[in-house]
């Protein structure tokens, strides 16, 4: 009988220790999971992102999704298409945005390597795309990536847009992948930073 009680006490203590270890493991996992998530989906250049997101009435987390997708926060990024900086703006797009928000400023395409200038121009462009496509992020992202002309042509075709205002399907693999990256990245930013 005494032997049974000793075994019972040992089993109870082992279960208690295992429960404590499992609880500690869960807490550590949650802590490190949050760190990993924030490392994968960082917030950088917060001063500029917050300011221009507010100025152009955009969720800052959406801008982070664009920056992460476009350059992974590398201000010196260049693309094969000649786009520059954090938000990967081409020279043609730079000239158009400059004519809208900075016509008298002495800015050149080279200035897109400056994080503030790039975020300022990119934020305006994102806001313009959102306004043009009724705040539909996927359609706005397609336009940011492929241009309004391409998106407007697709909107006129019923196999790509049921309502003529937003895209339901993306015929080009690069466009489809880009839209998926933006929308899923934005969703992850919301999950990570609004749940905190």
TrEMBL record:
InterPro entries: Lysozyme-like_dom_sf (IPR023346), Transglycosylase_SLT_dom_1 (IPR008258)
Domain Transglycosylase SLT residues, every copy: 48-160
Coiled-coil segments on the chain, per record: none
PANTHER family reported in the protein's UniProt record: MEMBRANE-BOUND LYTIC MUREIN TRANSGLYCOSYLASE C, SOLUBLE LYTIC MUREIN TRANSGLYCOSYLASE-RELATED
Name of the featured protein: Transglycosylase SLT domain protein
């Amino acid at each position: 009988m005494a032997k049974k009680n000793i075994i019972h006490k040992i089993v109870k203590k082992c279960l208690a220790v295992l429960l404590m270890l499992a609880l500690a493991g869960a807490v550590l996992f949650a802590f490190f999971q949050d760190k990993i998530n924030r490392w994968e989906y960082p917030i950088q250049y917060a001063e500029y992102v917050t300011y221009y997101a507010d100025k152009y009435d955009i969720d800052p987390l959406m801008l982070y999704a664009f920056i992460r997708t476009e350059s992974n926060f590398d201000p010196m990024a260049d693309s094969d298409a000649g786009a520059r900086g954090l938000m990967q703006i081409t020279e043609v797009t730079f000239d158009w945005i400059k004519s809208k928000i900075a016509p008298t400023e002495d800015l050149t395409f080279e200035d897109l390597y400056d994080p503030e200038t790039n975020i300022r121009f990119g934020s305006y462009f994102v806001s313009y795309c959102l306004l043009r496509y009724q705040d539909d992020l996927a359609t706005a992202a397609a336009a940011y990536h492929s241009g309004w002309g391409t998106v407007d042509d697709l909107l006129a075709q019923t196999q790509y847009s049921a309502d003529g205002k937003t895209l339901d399907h993306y015929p080009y693999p690069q466009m489809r992948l880009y839209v998926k990256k933006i929308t899923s990245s934005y969703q992850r930013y919301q999950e990570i930073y609004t749940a905190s």
